[in-house]
Amino acid sequence: MSIIQLSNISKIYNPDTVPVRALNHVNLNIDKGEFTAIVGPSGCGKTTLLNTIGGLDHPTEGKVIIDHTDITALQSKALINFRLHNIGFVFQDYSLLPVLTARENTEFIMQLQNRSKKEYRQRAEELLKEVGLGDKMDFFPSKLSGGQQQRVAVARALAPKPKFVLADEPTANLDSKSTNDLLDIMLKLNKEEHITFLFSTHDQRVIDKARRIVVLEDGNIVKDEVLTVSY
Ligand code: ADP
Ligand code: ADP
C-alpha cells in the first residue's frame, strides 16, 4: 500500500471567472522510503500538486489518500490536525518564525502535540545535530545563512515524526554549496532513517540526486522514471 495515493486529481483555479486547469486527471502513487522529484517548467503545476498532497489546496476533482485516510473528505479542523501529525513541509522561503531560535522553531509543533518538555527538547537537539547545526541551536533565523535556515526547516519538518516530507523548491534560494549540503542531508535521512521525501525542483543538480523523477507538463504527468542509483 502506497503512503500517498492520488487518484484522478484535477485542479481548476477560478472555475467561475477565468478557469486555469493546473492539474489534469493526475494519478500518482508514492511508496514509503522514496526520494522523488517532481520536475517541470514554472507554471506546470508542481506547487499545486504538492499543496494538494499536503492538504493546503483542495482538488476540484479526485481523491488524495494518505496512509488509508482520504484527506479530501476531511473537514478543515480534522485536516489541520491530520497535517500537523502526518505531513512535514519545507518551503522555498524557509518560513521559519523570526522571533524563535532554531531550537524553538524545531520544538514548536511538538509542543502542540502535547509532548513532555524533556521529550521535545531532546528530539529538537538530536534533529538539529543531524542537520549539522548542533552549535547553532540558539541562533535566531536572521543570524543563519539561507542554507542553515533551510536545514532548520528540515529539522522542524521532521520533528513531529511525519509520514513523509513535502518540499516545494527547497533549494530555489540557495547557492551551489548550500544546495549540495541540503541534498546530502536529505539523502542521508532518506537512507538511514527511511524518511520519505517528495520535492519539486527545476534545478538539474537536485534532479540528478533523485531516485524517481516525475515530469509534469501543463498539469499532466508526461514521464515517471525510477532510477537505479548507487551510493
Ligand atoms: P509551478 O509550481 O510548476 O510553477 P503552479 O502549481 O504554481 O506551478 O501553477 C500551475 C498553474 O496554475 C499556473 O498556470 C499558475 O498560474 C496557476 N495558478 C497557481 N495558483 C493559482 C491561483 N491561486 N489562482 C489562479 N491560478 C493559479
Ligand atoms: P512556484 O513557481 O514556486 O510554484 P509561483 O510564483 O508560481 O510559485 O506562485 C506563488 C504563489 O502565487 C502560489 O501561492 C500560487 O498559488 C499563486 N499563484 C500562482 N499563479 C497564480 C495566478 N495566475 N493567479 C493567482 N495566484 C497565483
Automatic annotation (TrEMBL):
UniProt-listed Pfam families: ABC_tran (PF00005)
Example of a GO cellular component annotation carried by this entry: membrane protein complex
GO MF, any single term: ATP hydrolysis activity
Domain ABC transporter: 4-231
Keywords, in A-Z order: ATP-binding, Nucleotide-binding, Transport
InterPro entries for this protein: AAA+_ATPase, ABC_transporter-like_ATP-bd, ABC_transporter-like_CS, ABC_transpr_LolD-like, MacB-like_ATP-bd, P-loop_NTPase
Lineage top rank: taxon: Bacteria
Family: Belongs to the ABC transporter superfamily. Macrolide exporter (TC 3.A.1.122) family.
Protein's UniProt name: ABC transporter ATP-binding protein
Protein's organism: Rapidithrix thailandica
